[in-house]
Automatic annotation (TrEMBL):
It is found in: Membrane. Pfam families: Nramp. This is Divalent metal cation transporter. It is a multi-pass membrane protein. One of its GO terms (biological process) is iron ion transmembrane transport. The chain crosses the membrane at residues 21-42, 48-70, 91-113, 125-146, 158-176, 196-216, 237-264, 284-310, 322-339, 345-369, 381-403. It comes from Cerasibacillus terrae. The lineage of its organism: Bacteria, Bacillati, Bacillota, Bacilli, Bacillales.
Length: 406
């Protein structure tokens, strides 16, 4: 083979590798973003917009800024160390990784019951089938992804497509309501009221629980790690938060448009009511699509990330992790189909979830200064300071939340 031919082949391989890396980075960003946009996301955003009106724009801005600092810290340390979150935690304090894994798996399993239920409700609104049947169909769809040989690639593509569809539909619904955009822009920097609980709830919903590690673990599984990958890893983490932000802003404007017209939102199903008031029966069908896309991506994200926390516990778990992910989905679906949503478990999981972000972020920040975790890497001081403020603040508020629950 001539030198030109060899050079041409090398150029093709380099192009393929770059495309693969770009696809994985985009997939990781969307995995984190769509994992945070579940059924709870739709309800939270609708309810808080009803309560705060245009002032909710300020809450979105602050939560997104804090989300960025939290995610950039986590993604960078995971990428540099080449270790998953619980492995870093075990090096910070032996046994801490096991505790973190228990929190993640219990929380992920419990909340996945709600995600499966949301998927069933989405198909119910979209096609008119019963929620139970819809949840079973959705679970089978999610399971099929992990039965495919290239499950990681398929998961990336499905999640990206679902994310784009959600953005387009929510922007359309927001447009039909003609929201007071000028008022929202003013309140972004000069709100008439500030709700700390709303900020905490949004941060917890966007980057709390298993979502804290979803994107970072996806990059590790795809082999993207090391100091040389940091520029792209950082961009991917910020992009993921930006995608979440676009979705939340679009839904916020849709609800604000409905509220500003004086229309009454049905408290039994606030987000569905908004879509229906905005665009009639077509709007209700659109809600079904958005709800299903939001729920199914959260089902996949919760199962994938939760199982990633126990992969290193035993070689057999690592070898058959796709089947364990499937089992995770089956258990969640069966619980919803035969038992319903066990309120006590969901309350307990919510309390644990409130504690995961400060515990996880605090551990990551300590790990960023341990040589057996990051080697000679120097973590930026400004990231450490902002991350520490978020960890301490969220920790304090999480403890208050737990005390209120019990």
């Amino acid at each position: 083979m001539s030198e030109k031919a060899i050079a041409k082949d090398l150029s093709k391989d380099d192009f393929k590798n770059k495309n693969r890396t770009r696809s994985v980075l985009l997939g990781a960003a969307f995995l984190m973003a769509t994992s945070s946009v579940g059924p709870g996301f739709l309800t939270q955003t609708t309810v808080f917009t009803q309560q705060l009106a245009a002032s909710f724009a300020f809450v979105i801005l602050i939560s997104l800024v804090l989300d960025v600092f939290a995610q950039v810290n986590v993604w960078r340390v995971i990428a540099v160390s080449g270790l998953r979150g619980h492995e870093i935690a075990n090096r910070v304090l032996p046994g801490l990784g096991v505790l973190l894994s228990i929190f993640i798996v219990i929380g992920g399993l419990a909340f996945n019951i709600g995600n499966v239920a949301g998927a069933g409700l989405g198909l119910n609104a979209m096609l008119g089938i019963s929620p139970i049947t819809g949840s079973i169909i959705s679970a089978v769809f999610a399971i099929m992804i992990f039965l495919i040989k290239e499950a990681g690639k398929v998961m990336d593509k499905v999640i990206q497509l679902a994310g784009v569809v959600m953005i387009i539909l929510m922007v359309y619904v927001a447009y039909t309501t003609s929201p007071p955009v000028g008022e929202a822009l003013i309140n972004t920097v000069k709100p008439t009221q500030i709700d700390v609980l709303a900020i905490v709830t949004l941060i917890g919903g966007s980057v709390g629980g298993y979502i804290t590690f979803a994107g970072g673990h996806r990059l590790l599984d795809a082999g993207i790690k090391g100091v040389e990958s940091l520029p792209e890893v950082t961009k991917s983490s910020v992009f993921g938060i930006a995608v979440t932000g676009v979705m939340r802003v679009a839904l916020f404007l849709a609800v604000l448009g409905v509220v500003s017209q004086g229309l009454a939102i049905n408290p039994a199903n606030p987000p569905a009511s908004v879509f229906q008031l905005a665009a009639g029966n077509i709007g209700y069908r659109i809600f079904g699509v958005v709800m299903w896309a939001a729920a199914i991506t959260s089902v996949v994200g919760a199962a994938y990330t939760s199982v990633s926390f126990i992969r290193s516990f035993h070689p057999m778990i690592d070898k058959y992790h796709n089947y364990i992910i499937i089992l995770f989905i089956v258990i969640s679906s069966a619980t919803f189909a035969f038992v319903g949503q066990p309120v006590s478990v969901l309350i307990l999981a919510g309390a644990l979830n409130a504690l995961i972000l400060p515990l996880a972020l605090g551990t990551i920040l300590i790990g960023a200064y341990k040589k057996d975790v990051v080697g000679d890497y120097k973590h930026p001081l400004w990231l450490t300071i902002t991350g520490a403020i978020i960890a301490i603040g969220m920790g304090y508020l999480a403890i208050l939340t737990v005390l209120e629950q019990f």
